[in-house]
Design brief:
Elements lengths: L3 H8 L1 H8 L2 H8 L4 H27 L4 H16 L2 H11 L13 H16 L2 H8 L1 H17 L8 H8 L5 H13 L4 H27 L16
Helix pairs in contact: 2-12, 3-9, 4-5, 4-6, 4-7, 4-12, 6-10, 7-8, 7-12, 8-12, 9-10
The structure holds ligand VIB.
The site of the ligand Cc1ncc(C[n+]2csc(CCO)c2C)c(N)n1 has 13 residues, from α4, α5, α9 and α12.
Length: 232
C-alpha cells in the first residue's frame, strides 16, 4: 500500500523541483549568494524557528503519547541548540554577528508561512499539525542530500557546514514525522485526507516563497512609524 506521505510528496513534486532549482538554493550550491541575501534569510529564519518551536508546543498540547511528546521535546532542543549552526555559517560568510540579526519583524512571505502553520495548529488535530509542519524538514532533508551529492563540497566551500548539516538529516525527523502521519492517516476519511493534503501543499508553496523572499530581499511595501518587535 502506498504510504499517505508518499501521496503527499507526489502531489507536491512540481513544488519540490521548483525549490531545488530556485536561485537561492543554486546560490548555496555555487557559493554566489550576496551578503544582503544571507542576512535577510537569517533575520527571517530566526523568527521562523521561534514560530516552529511554538508549533511543537501546540503539537505537544494535542499529543496522546509520551513517546510523541518526547520526540517533539527533543526537536525543540534541537532547534534551540543545533539549528543555530547553519545560521552561523551564513553569518560568518556575510561577516556579521548572529545576535545582530535577531528580533526583526517577519516579512510578508515568512509571515504568511508562520500564520498558515499556526492557524492550522490552533484549529486542528495532531495530524493537521503534522501535515502543515512536515514540508519544513522534508524539503531541507532533500535539498541537503541533493547538494552534497551534486557539489561534493570540500572544506573551502563557503556553505560546506550548511550542506553537511542538512545533508545528515536523512532517516531523521522527516521519517519520524512521516511515520506518525501515515499511521494516523490510515483511519481517516477521504475528505480529511484531502484537507491534510491542502495543509501540506500550502506549506510546500510557502517554503518556495520563503526562499524567494530571501533572494529578492522582500519587505512590506510601505513602512510604518513603528517597526519594532518580532513577528509573533
Ligand atoms: C523556512 C525554513 N524551512 C525549513 C527549515 C529547516 N528546519 C527548520 S526546523 C527543522 C527541524 C524540525 O524539527 C528544520 C529541518 C528552516 N530552517 N527554515
Amino acid at each position: 500500500m502506498t504510504r499517505f506521505s508518499e501521496e503527499l510528496r507526489r502531489e507536491a513534486d512540481p513544488i519540490y523541483r521548483a525549490i531545488f532549482d530556485h536561485p537561492f538554493v543554486r546560490g548555496i550550491a555555487d557559493g554566489t549568494l550576496r551578503k544582503e541575501q544571507l542576512i535577510h534569510y537569517v533575520k527571517q529564519d530566526f523568527e521562523y524557528l521561534n514560530a516552529y518551536i511554538r508549533l511543537y508546543g501546540i503539537a505537544i498540547s494535542k499529543c496522546d503519547s509520551r513517546d510523541t511528546m518526547a520526540l517533539f521535546n527533543e526537536q525543540i532542543s534541537f532547534i534551540l541548540h543545533s539549528e543555530t549552526h547553519p545560521h552561523n555559517n551564513f553569518c560568518s560568510v556575510a561577516g556579521v554577528s548572529y545576535e545582530q540579526l535577531q528580533g526583526y519583524p517577519l516579512a510578508p512571505s515568512a509571515n504568511h508561512y508562520v500564520r498558515h502553520m499556526l492557524s492550522v495548529a490552533h484549529a486542528g488535530t495532531l495530524e493537521d499539525i503534522l501535515a502543515a509542519m512536515l514540508p519544513c524538514p522534508w524539503t531541507y532533508t532533500e535539498i541537503g542530500a541533493k547538494l552534497l551529492a551534486e557539489v561534493k563540497p570540500d572544506r573551502s566551500h563557503p556553505f560546506y557546514d550548511w550542506m553537511h548539516f542538512y545533508g545528515s538529516f536523512e532517516g531523521g525527523i522527516t521519517e519520524k514525522m512521516r511515520l506518525l502521519l501515515d499511521e494516523r492517516a490510515e483511519s481517516l476519511s477521504p475528505d480529511r485526507k484531502k484537507r491534510l493534503t491542502e495543509h501540506f501543499v500550502a506549506s510546500c508553496r510557502l517554503e518556495y516563497m520563503f526562499w524567494d523572499m530571501a533572494y529578492t530581499l522582500e519587505e512590506w511595501p510601505v513602512s510604518a512609524a513603528q517597526t519594532e518587535g518580532a513577528g509573533r
